[in-house]
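My current task is to audit a protein record that another person submitted. Please read both lines and tell me whether the tokens look consistent with the sequence. Do not assume that whoever made the record got everything right. I have pasted the whole thing underneath without changing anything:

===
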Amino acid sequence: MSSVPYVDAFVRPARRPGVVRGERPESADLEEPFVARAIRQAAGHLSPPRRASRRQLAAWAARVDREAQGLSELSEASFDRAVAELRAKLLRAGLEEQLLPRGFALVREAARRALGTPHYDVQLFGGWVMARSGLSELETGEGKTLMATLPASLAAMAGIPVHVITANDYLVERDAEAMSPIYERLGVRVGVIAESQPDRIARREAYGCDVTYATNKQIAFDYLRDLIAGGGNRHLASRLGLDGTRAHTPQTAPVMRGLCFAIVDEADSVLIDDARTPLILSGEGAPADEDTVRKALSMAGQLDEGAHFAVERLRGEIELTLQGRSRLDELGHFVGGPLAGERRREEWVHRALCAEHLYERDRHYVVRDGAIEIIDLPTGRRAPDRSFEGGVQSLIEAREGLALTPQSETLARISYQRFFRRYLRLAGMTGTAREVSRELWNVYGLRTVIVPTRLPSQRVALGQTVLPTAAAKWNTAVARIGDLHRRGRPVLVGTSTVATSEHLSALLDRAALPHEVLSASQDQEEAAVIARAGEQGRITVATRMAGRGTDVKLGEGVAENGGLAVVSTELGEARRIDRQLFGRCGRQGAPGSYEQIVSLEDRLLEAHRKGWLGFVAGNPPISRLLGGLLPPAAQCAEERRAALARRRLFESERILRQLLAFSGGAT
């Protein structure tokens, strides 16, 4: 029997979690010895992501094909018996390597019978990587949703509760509904955790299923609530409507069965982008003091940038100068209440300055139905379950002329790094992971394996155009979009914010170019709009990550005309975010093209103008010569900054756990 050439995918210890043990298991949150941590991190730096060869892919597919011989001729009853035999073996042995080929053959046959779409060889290989607790990088459009059913089904039949985690509620409900026929054919029960269903009894039933689909936020929030409900803290439990005693009722008892096996879809978005800030479970605090909020805004308005305070927009920081503190002392003589004290006054004015200078409408938040809704910057999607901390929410509401909501109070918090490390088994899949493969290994122990495409790519790269001013960029972009439209090609235009989408929309209206705009303000319809983006002559303007996970189908005659044209008008905060946008075209071997039109005045370049970037950008002759080097340099600098912020958060939590353990406190 031929064997598959070894792919170094990290494998966690094979434990027997879930219903077999009858408890809520999770990986111990232990401090890793310094030497072991240093060796692992060195291995991550020295070992790039593995690129699987077509020979490896073919060898694994051949093993599955041998196990599949005769399955298609089985009657339904005989197929059920074959599934029952495999389930018995998996329950005894777990996800053992020798059982995977037969298991994959049965899951593929179930997909053929239930959906008429058996798994392709690339999906079989990617599923094998995930079954070994690795991360599969599969090109956009190659079928990751179907691929996830391979490891999920086998783990479920082995008695391991599986969480399939993705980035938003739409993808959760869509994927669970689309894949349910496969699971049902294998006797695997499927549950869905949706934001619209807060009832804890219903959630416990969903977590009680063999495979549960949920977003990272919903599942982590439920984990924190379960910690509080089971931790005996009656005060916190009562704040959340839970029971802090051991005498739980059906409405208050923990809902989860532990952290056994997570399969993370859009893994770079969930494990990297969302890991920049901790997940905070908040309760309603004291009502906002409207008088204090308005006085703080008034005092902040009497301070001058440069003289009284310095703004570091790149790092999101504001620092009062000595002159600024003196000016605040003068203003403090005329106020009373909470702002009379020097320390409290500086804290509130600092928050007011942040609200005024760091948070922009239609970039960091939108106003919808009379309320502030935060925009998740990496995805461009609204995050209605989040709010600004430390009184900033009230200050922004006052600035926007909205009713002030009660201030939130932090009840529990956890970083995504710490949360996902608690799973006994962790696997992932995405189209864009290679740039962050070292971080995925260092933090989560996930080895990235790049899976080849099923068909040769016909995607054409048309390069990057760098213009000196934003006005020149938009004029060039509109002209280019108009040219593509007149040729009958569909055009998907990527922007970074709601504001730039609306600005471009106004320019397209002026040029009499019909189009649709999709942004964080209207994400309920984003999947439908993105799905239509491949129709002949259609122009779609969208924030870069809107509609992620939605397939763009080409309309009649589009492939013969060159396919979908993707035009990016702004740099992403990371190269992989641009790659995600570019991956909307040329899917599954279809034709398509992508290009980028940016300017030296774009936000990301402006933010990194210090040093040689600023020198080059500020000298027209040099910028004409070296302007093409500025965008990738700025992106690399931003990637390093974001990675450093995530590492600081991770290290600060590690140090905090050490201090709490030393003092005997709760961790």
Notes: Residues 1-20, 662-667 have pLDDT under 50 and may be disordered.
